[in-house]
Design brief:
Structural class: mainly alpha
Distance between the termini: 61 Å
Strand content: under 5%
Number of helices: 3
Helix content: over 70%
Order of helices and strands: HHH
């Protein structure tokens, strides 16, 4: 029953008479850019772990494991 109600609400259209000013668009754009930046930071933080996992899994790189302390010296 809830599914039918949801479909009925989504398919019935009415005018919203809403206005999105440039400030709202700017806020949405900043949120999108911030999300992309946060995802890039997380990916960069975990890149060595992922790289080490695949090198161990597929046998490349032998037993050499790069630690976080060793990467700080580079």
């Amino acid at each position: 029953m809830a599914v039918l109600t949801g479909i009925a609400l989504l398919t019935s259209t009415q005018d919203a008479y809403a206005y999105l000013d440039p400030g709202t668009a700017s806020l949405i754009l900043q949120g999108i850019i911030g999300g992309i930046a946060a995802a890039a930071a997380v990916a960069a933080a975990y890149w060595l772990r992922v790289k080490h996992f695949f090198s161990r899994t597929f046998g490349r790189g032998g037993n050499s494991c790069i630690t976080a302390a060793e990467t700080d010296n580079e």
